[in-house]
Structures are given as structure tokens and as C-alpha cells.
Write a structure and sequence with these properties.
Blueprint lengths: L10 H4 L8 E4 L9 H10 L4 E4 L11 H5 L3 E6 L6 H8 L4 E4 L2 H13 L4 E3 L13 E4 L2 E6 L4 E12 L4 E2 L8 H6 L1 E12 L18 E4 L12
Parallel strand pairs: 1-2, 1-8, 2-3, 3-4, 8-10, 10-11
Antiparallel strand pairs: 5-7, 6-7, 8-9
């Protein structure tokens, strides 16, 4: 019988859950908090035609920006793509479909997907082109746009520490979107810098409980150079 408290798997086993044409949620902000080993694994696997949901498209050779640079992504849902000129060039050339969403609304849409809400109401974008294709709702005499929830077939998350059940601790600002992303995947795969036995993480430290996590892989470390390191 499979031990439901043991979620640590090899990278090769984790990669069996990725396929062409899938929807992928990724934690991170400008590459910080993107899971490097999983991203490299996706590249090595040759997966393409992804619909990528993330705060941004990182930088050309950092984090999920690598997936965009290698033209593995057909559509991205993000708050901005300005830090990755390859994303902008592909969008202009008609090679990459981009759905822009204000950062706070994007976070709430992912959270809504993770907790099973039917959507959220927001007045951001009323009277602008952001209304296009969105349902309007009037509540107490005020008009709102219905923002639909976001989920994905697989969510990838980078944690500082995980126990074998998947309780997670994040590294300062690398926490960013990761806790929300962890809730919104049909399958959530965590890359952890450190994996410890169950009971070794103080319950008060845990940000994401293991109930949201399906698999954990050991991180091989960041395999890119940050802008401030040059």
C-alpha cells in the first residue's frame, strides 16, 4: 500500500505528469521563487505548447523565462511580460498569445481557483478595454466585472523546506505567489531546497499545509545567473 504521508519522488517520476498542450501554473516573481530543477526538467523533456499562468515571464534566461525563450509556451496569463523581451517579440509576431491581468486580480483569480470559488467581483477595468468578453454584475447598485478562477493541470512550486508530507516553508520574498499556486493545481509538484522528516518543521512556520501537495522533488539549485550577480 502506498504511504500517503510519503510524497518525495525522483525528478524522473515527477516529470511523467507533464505533457504537450497542458496548462501549467508556476509560482515566482521575476524568476524569484520559480523552481529551477522542474523548469529544466520540462525543457529537457521537450514539452511544448504550454498555457502558462504566472505573475510574469521572468527574464530571457531566468526561471520560466527559459520556457518562453525556447518557444515552449503558446499562451501566457500574466500581469506583465516587460522583463522578458522574448515574450514581447513573440506576442508582436503572433507567436505567443498573452492575456494580461492586473497583479492583484491575478493573485485573487488563482486563490479563487484554489479554494473552489466561482470567481471574484472587481471594479478594476470598468469603462476600459478590460471589460471585453467579461460578464458584468450589479451588486448594491454598483457595477463589477466577474473575474473567473484560474486552475491548472499541474502547479509547480519552489519551497525553502518541505517535510515528507509536503508541509512547506518559503524563503522570504520567494514566497510570493507560491502558496496560492500550490492550492490551484490538479497536481501540485514542489521543488524543495531541503527535505526533512515529518515533525521537524515547527507548525507555526508552515505556510502551505501538505494537503495541497502531491509530489516533492529535491532541488538541484538555481542554474542561472541573477542580474545583480553580473
Amino acid at each position: 500500500m502506498t504511504n500517503r504521508f510519503e510524497k518525495v519522488v525522483s525528478l524522473s517520476e515527477a516529470l511523467t505528469h507533464f505533457r504537450d498542450g497542458m496548462t501549467l501554473l508556476a509560482g515566482g516573481f521575476g524568476g524569484v521563487g520559480n523552481p529551477p530543477t522542474l523548469i529544466q526538467g520540462i525543457l529537457d523533456l521537450g514539452v511544448r505548447d504550454l498555457t502558462l499562468i504566472s505573475n510574469d515571464t521572468a527574464f530571457p534566461h531566468i526561471g520560466i523565462g527559459k520556457l518562453v525563450t525556447e518557444k515552449r509556451v503558446k499562451k501566457v496569463i500574466a500581469s506583465h511580460i516587460g522583463s522578458n523581451p522574448n515574450a514581447g517579440a513573440q506576442m508582436t509576431a503572433g507567436e505567443l498569445e498573452v492575456e494580461f491581468c492586473p497583479q492583484g486580480i491575478l493573485a485573487e483569480r488563482v486563490r479563487a481557483g484554489g479554494v473552489g470559488l466561482g470567481g471574484i467581483l472587481s471594479d478594476v477595468g470598468i469603462g476600459t478595454i478590460a471589460e471585453k468578453g467579461k460578464q458584468k454584475v450589479v451588486l448594491d447598485g454598483k457595477e463589477y466585472l466577474l473575474e473567473t478562477p484560474l486552475t491548472a493541470e499541474v502547479a509547480i512550486v519552489h519551497a525553502k523546506k518541505a517535510d515528507h508530507f509536503g508541509n512547506l516553508v518559503f524563503d522570504t520574498s520567494a514566497r510570493n505567489f507560491n502558496p496560492l499556486v500550490a492550492m490551484a493545481g490538479d497536481i501540485t509538484i514542489v521543488e524543495a531546497d531541503e527535505i526533512v522528516e515529518i515533525g521537524m518543521i515547527d507548525p507555526e512556520e508552515i505556510v502551505t499545509p501538505g494537503v495541497f501537495v502531491n509530489f516533492i522533488v529535491q532541488s538541484e539549485g538555481v542554474n542561472w545567473q541573477w542580474a545583480w550577480e553580473k
